[in-house]
Amino acid sequence: MAVSDTQKKSLPTRTLTATLYWLKQLTQLWSLKTLTDLPDRLKNIWQQLMGSYWFIPTACVLIGILLAPLLVTIDQHFDRKTVRDLSFAFTGDDDAARAIMTTIAGAVLGVAGTTFSITIAVLSMASSQFGPRLLRNFLTDTSNQLVLGAFIGTFSYSLLVLKSIHKHDVDFGVPQLAVTFAIIMAIICALLLVYFIQHMVHAIQASHVIQGASNEAIRNINYWYHDHCDLQHQRDIDLAQPDIEHYQTWATTPIYAPLSGYLQQIYIESLMTLALDYGGIIKLHTNLGDFVTNKNVIGYFYQRPANHPSLLQKTKTSHLAIMPSAPDGLFWQRLATCIHIERRSSHSNDISYSLGQMTEIAVRALSPGINDPKTAVNCVQSLTTCLSVMIRRQPPSPYHFYTPPSKNADSDKDDANTSTEQHRVAILSVITKTPTISDFIDTSLGEVRRYATSDLMVLKALCQALTNLNYARVNDAQRQILLHELKLIERTGEENLSYSELIADLLAMTQQAGYFINSEDSKFQYFEYVSEFAAHIRQTLKTE
After folding, report:
1. Nearest-5° angle of CA 100, CA 106, CA 109?
2. Which strands sit side by side in the sheet containing 339-342, from one edge to the other?
3. CA nearest 281: which of 308, 314, 315?
């Protein structure tokens, strides 16, 4: 008992100590320029808020709480005769107003419970059919959140207006405008209920879920992949070629993950600032979405030699670093703020996560419990669309450079441009891991292939997908990737299909697809697989 009393007495002290500690850490980290990429951090927080199911409904409740006293106050200063002239305005007495507000509050609260029950039922169905990781797409559906928020916001508004209705012997009796607004909101809520039911019916359809995952993947691809090659970045790579070739010979310190979980965000600007302050290069060996533990080596810090030329480069400041230093306690504190790790895998700008959603739908559709190969084919087609965009775009570079400002920035524009071209300095600061198109094909189409071993429809859809990707390829290396995957599809069919006729059909298609991909002018040809039997029938019909 004495121990318990001691714990109770120390609770406020421990809480205050912990609060002061975190405030001190936050102040220290802010002063250390770890928030260089503040817009990205704020965007990440905003995405987390929008990804939660409570944010929009809570905002609607707060709006209802603020609107109620505001409209009541306007009613008090509004001309009552003008209100009576409005045909749609409420002009009843206090008993009628109280009855209307009570009815609205009870009705919208009951409908809110109904919509919540429907949402739970849809989530349960989606979890069993599409997979638990697809639940986020339903939870982050803004339409569902707005409908629920409108219901509970109207309920909160109605309660507060109901409290403001008084008898006739009071100077101000019935807030007519506030009651009129409540009636309008009740009608809107009735329309929203109809919209909600129609929206949920479409939301649980496989085609709708696949299209949503595909759109999200395209957005992430547009974020990372560019339409054209960055020539200046290529020049920076050429300028920093000595560092790229020799940085692994420098003094090396392993970088461990600050905690266990999934890597969700990498703040490049903060990492660059940290690397510059310590005079080295940070190389990460993990990518977005990877699972790490606090004992994992996720990268290395390479410390530049003391006489390295980039450390003496003159800029607006006297130097970039006085002397390169090994990582210390402050380094690890700042590093923990440069990467964002969560206990569970969630949405970010990770392309693999978006493609993995479509892959998971296809794999579940191929399971014996569902046995829906048509849905798997639809997923393969959507994956093909995303991969074709990636193939013809410029992939992200793993090298990230810091370009110090020139002293000639305030001089004549032409002279400054000439000086910049002649004395441009690109300091290699961060090296990240970037998956290749081969990795994406293997983890998407390759994963579907491994589960569709005995399904001819899906295997032929994969062959068709490779021929479609051939239209988007831009080099011979991508051609070899497609031919390798085509060979794996052929081997899968040979070893797992049940009948010799099915195997022959698949082999004929893979052979035709291989000829098509190897053709030099395949981008200007139309690929259509015609089986031997179909070709015989066509020839017979032509003869007759």
Report:
1. 135
2. 291-292, 261-266, 339-342
3. 308
Q: Radius of gyration (Cα) for the chain, nearest Å?
A: 32
Per-residue model confidence as pLDDT tens digits over 404-446: 765 544 444 444 444 444 456 778 899 999 899 999 999 999 9
Comparing CA positions, the residue from 332, 273, 251 lying closest to residue 298 is 332
Quote the pLDDT of residue 420: 44
pTM of the model: 0.80
Q: 303: burial class by Cβ within 10 Å (0-12, 13-18, 19+)?
A: buried
What is the spatial distance between Cα 55 and Cα 49, in angstroms, rounded to a whole number? 6
163 in Cβ contact with 101 (< 8 Å): no
Distance in angstroms (rounded) separating the CA atoms of residues 449 and 472: 21
- One-letter amino acid at 497 equals L
- Per-residue burial over 201-235, b if 16 or more Cβ lie within 10 Å, else e, is eebbebeebbebbbebbbebbeebbeeeeeeebee
Q: Dihedral of CA 57/63/66/72: which sign?
A: negative
* Cα dihedral 138, 142, 147, 151 in deg (nearest 10): 110
Could you tell me the two tokens for 207? Answer: 């085609």
Least Cα distance to 224 among 175, 287, 174, 317 occurs for 287
Using CA atoms, how far apart are residues 273 and 429, in angstroms rounded to an integer? Answer: 8
Three-state SS annotation for 409-436: HHCCHHHHHHHHHHHCCCEEEEECCCCC
CB contact set of 56 (below 8 Å; sequence gap of 6+): 50, 142, 145, 146, 148, 149
H or E element, residue 256: strand 251-256
Please report which confidence band the pLDDT of residue 204 belongs to, taking 50, 70 and 90 as the band edges: confident
Q: What is the C-alpha to C-alpha distance for residues 441 and 466, in angstroms, rounded to an integer?
A: 10
Percent of the chain with pLDDT over 90: 41
**Alpha-carbon gap, residue 396 to 539, rounded angstroms:** 50
What burial letters (b/e) apply to 393-430, b meaning 16+ CB within 10 Å? beeebebbbbebebeeeeeeeeeeeebeeeeebbbbbb
Task: Report d(CA 491, CA 224) in Å as an integer.
Answer: 34
Tell me the CA distances in angstroms from 244 to 82, 238, 250, 274, 537, one per residue in order: 77, 9, 11, 19, 61
Q: List beta partners, residue 182.
A: none
Report the alpha-carbon distance of residue 256 to residue 332 in Å, rounded.
9
Residue 331 near residue 274 (C-beta atoms within 8 A): yes
Please state, in angstroms and rounded to a whole number, the distance separating the CA atoms of residues 544 and 541.
5
Ramachandran area for residue 4 (φ above 0: left; ψ -120 to 50: alpha; else beta): alpha
For strands 427-431 and 291-292, give the pairing.
Answer: unpaired
Binned at pLDDT 50, 70 and 90, residue 49 comes out as confident
